[in-house]
Amino acid sequence: MSTLSTILAVILAVAFLGAGITKLTRRQQMVDNFKRWGYADAVLMATGGVECLAAVLILAGIALPALAIAGGLLIIFVMVGALLTHQRAKDELAMWVAPLALLALDVGLLVSMLPDG
To answer: What is the pLDDT of residue 116?
Structure first.
């Protein structure tokens, strides 16, 4: 894994571990948002679990790149879901910034891992 890939992996892992933990520990703001969006508590917990799993895979991917790719694909899935949720809820633009930025960083990680050629 290149230096750029490693830096992006660490940034994404920290961000997604933090986001996942806030969901798994049922931080009140997260609970309120998921209720406002019409999602069951199980969706909150599943999302937090997937985010933590993605973070672990990306960190492990520093040693074994295939794991980072799997984690990166999970992040794409979660961020597309987040963006669709914000669109459906007609959330203000400020709510879109984090998922868009994380999606861009994730795409950057995956592109940086493409073989040279």
So the answer is: 79
